[in-house]
Design brief:
Blueprint (H helix, E strand, L loop, with lengths): L8 H68 L8 H22 L4 H31 L1 H73 L2 H12 L14 H78 L4 H39 L1
Helix pairs in contact: 1-2, 1-3, 1-4, 2-3, 3-4, 5-6, 6-7
């Protein structure tokens, strides 16, 4: 998985968050469009399909009730206590007529359905009129007169019933179809949201896994930083990649190399200082010995000078007593001059040695 280190952590986080945001946005859009679609379907169903279906069902009930009450009073022939059939039939007829006016007005954009309803209204009026005459005939003349009107009423009843059954079934089927469509939309929305949620979860898991793999590089980096703190500069910080962690490792490697170089130079300087200190110590001992020798030479020179002074005085005395021995005195002076020259050379030699030692000490310091 070394290729992961070729990408910036910030870039990977942006990519992961972008993918999560994309799926979340897709989920929101899916929910919104599905909800809007279901809302439209529900509105159509609640304001049109179901009310129209209920109107056809109520109209069918009213027609059945008209026939039922007129048939009932025909059978009882208007006997006391069973003579309310006309009133009940009229009530259901008025309800059906008012309902038809409402249904016709609702079909303002459907001329065909409007014409069908207007014809049904006319046929219902004819049906109701024939039904009343049938009942009156049964009451007045019994089955002999009533059966004639019954034969005229039955075709109307069958025709109206067939039309009502067709309309009712059509609208009931429409309600079922729309309800099924709503259920399918709800299921589709549910499954699509579930799928998108699973995808988001997978992206989150994969994203955390990738970030965890990238951040695993922090562990060896932390250990190596601890080694630097302990001045253990033997291990390299080389990490392949181009992300923030590898950049930190690269900078730490530069720091390690500079520290290593600095410590090496410090050790070399320390060794040189130790060597200089040793040479200074040795030189100091040598200077001390030279100084002692110089003191001895100076003492010797003083003694020689004192002896020369005595010799000179002796020569002067000899010259004063015996001028004849001047030649001997000259020889003695020559010997004395030679001694003085030798002493002078010895002093100069000691002085040069001291100067050389002083210069050496100055260089070492």
């Amino acid at each position: 998985m070394g290729w992961l280190h070729q990408f910036s952590i910030r870039l990977m986080l942006k990519i992961i968050m972008g993918i999560i945001a994309f799926f979340l946005l897709a989920s929101i859009v899916r929910v919104y469009t599905s909800t809007a679609d279901m809302e439209t379907k529900l509105e159509i169903q609640s304001k049109e399909t179901i009310p129209h279906t209920m109107n056809y069902i109520n109209l069918k009930i009213n027609v059945i009730q008209i026939q039922q009450w007129l048939t009932d009073i025909s059978a009882t022939r208007g006997a006391k206590g069973y003579d309310d059939g006309f009133d009940e039939a009229e009530k259901y007829y008025k309800d059906a007529d008012a309902l038809l006016d409402q249904m016709i007005a609702a079909q303002h954009d459907n001329a065909q359905k409007r014409a069908e309803l207007e014809k049904f209204k006319h046929d219902l009026s004819e049906y109701y009129g024939i039904g009343k005459k049938m009942a009156e005939a049964y009451i007045a003349g019994g089955p002999e007169e009533g059966n004639t009107w019954m034969g005229k009423l039955d075709p109307y009843a069958e025709e109206l019933s067939d039309r009502l059954n067709g309309w009712s079934d059509e609208h009931i089927q429409k309600v079922k179809t729309e309800s099924q469509s709503l259920a399918e939309s709800a299921n589709s929305t549910k499954y699509s949201n579930l799928l998108l949620s699973i995808l988001v979860l997978l992206v989150v898991i994969v994203g955390f896994g990738i970030i965890a793999l990238v951040l695993d590089g922090v562990k060896p980096l932390t250990a190596q930083i601890g080694q630097i703190a302990a001045l253990d500069l033997s291990r390299s910080f080389q990490m392949n990649g181009n992300n923030e962690i590898t950049h930190i490792a690269s900078h730490l490697e530069e720091l390690r190399l500079k520290l290593s170089k600095f410590i090496g130079e410090a050790k070399n300087t320390s060794n040189e200082n130790a060597s200089v200190a040793y040479e200074l110590s040795t030189s100091s001992v040598q200077v001390g010995k030279t100084v002692e020798e110089t003191v001895e030479v100076i003492t010797q020179v003083a003694r020689e000078i004192e002896g020369i002074d005595k010799d000179t005085q002796h020569i002067i005395n000899i010259a004063a007593q015996n001028k004849i021995e001047i030649f001997d005195a000259g020889s003695a002076l020559t010997v004395t001059a030679t001694k003085i020259t030798a002493l002078t050379e010895q002093v100069q030699k000691n002085s040069q040695t001291e100067n050389d030692m002083a210069g050496r000490i100055q260089q070492l310091s």
